[in-house]
Amino acid sequence: MYQNHTKDTNNNCNKSRLCDHKEKLIQAIKRIKHEVDECKDAERETYIESVEVEHRFDDLEREIRAEFQNLHRFLDEEECRDLERLSREKKKQLKQLKDREKKIAEQGRDLQNAIAVLNSKLTEDDSPKLLKEIQDLIKRSHVSFVLPVEIDTEVRSGQFVGPIQYRIWKHMKNCLYPIWFDDDKDTGDCQANPRRFNYYYCIFGHQAFISGRHYWEVEVGNKTAWRLGVAQEDVPRGEMAATGTSSGLWTLALKGGSIQACTDPQPTKIKVSLRLVRIGVFLDCEKEEVTFYNAITMSPIYTFSMETVGVPLFPYFNPCDTDDGKNIAPIKVFNPSL
């Protein structure tokens, strides 16, 4: 009987342990099902993200193709203009040569007619009248060929070809939106103009942008410090606690010998393989991005995402202080365009 009691006790204990383990198993199944749900959610989100990425790359591909189509169209138009100019010069020279040829032929016919008249008198019977006619003809026969003025027929390659690639590139530069500086030079009362920066060495471009895509280049040369990029119209004009994106500035700077993207809360150091002497700034209002390029190699340096901006945007320039005479060189703004 004691053995039976012990056996029942063991069975009850085993049943209790089995129930506990089954409960743990159920909890494990629930946890794994939750993990499965998370896995499916992550898989679905990744699929959606992959579709979105594919669409973004497809959009970029279409954009690149459209840009190159614009380039091809521009080059086709330039080619047509050059060929039309060449054709006009060709027609002009050929017409001049044809006119000269015509004048020479007319003189040739006149000379042949003169010979024919003179020859006709040689066949007539001698008479006093013939003598007088011959004497008159001899007086009038002093005709000679006068060569018309020479035509300049040299075809000068330099007028139509020359450095054609550079020439076309120069034409392409004229397509950009121009960048102007504010021409308000009245410094008699700095407080009278709330638009003027009164703490930093800053200046805006004159033109504001609210839409479209815009590109300009800034030559910084051997300056030891500079800052440039894009700023909101309502950026503070005085001293700022933060001078990065939170203040409405999307800028690149040279400071302490290193290139920095002026991000918040701390600037982001940028490694560049070549010294930057000319920087391209590309503002895409639709994509809400500002991208900086090495304008010599056109390699990208850094891209800011601006998010939604509800105020006009201006080109922003800061040549920085003189650094004890080491940083007195100006910055120069150029407007190349594709």
Automatic annotation (TrEMBL):
It comes from Stegastes partitus. This is Zinc-binding protein A33 isoform X2. Pfam families: SPRY (PF00622). Residues 129-338 form the B30.2/SPRY domain. InterPro entries: B30.2/SPRY (IPR001870), B30.2/SPRY_sf (IPR043136), Butyrophylin_SPRY (IPR003879), ConA-like_dom_sf (IPR013320), SPRY_dom (IPR003877), TRIM/RBCC (IPR050143). Keywords: Coiled coil. CDD domains: SPRY_PRY_C-I_1 (cd13733). PROSITE patterns: B302_SPRY (PS50188). The lineage of its organism: Eukaryota, Metazoa, Chordata, Craniata, Vertebrata. SUPFAM superfamilies: Concanavalin A-like lectins/glucanases (SSF49899). It comes from the Eukaryota. Residues 80-114 form a coiled coil.
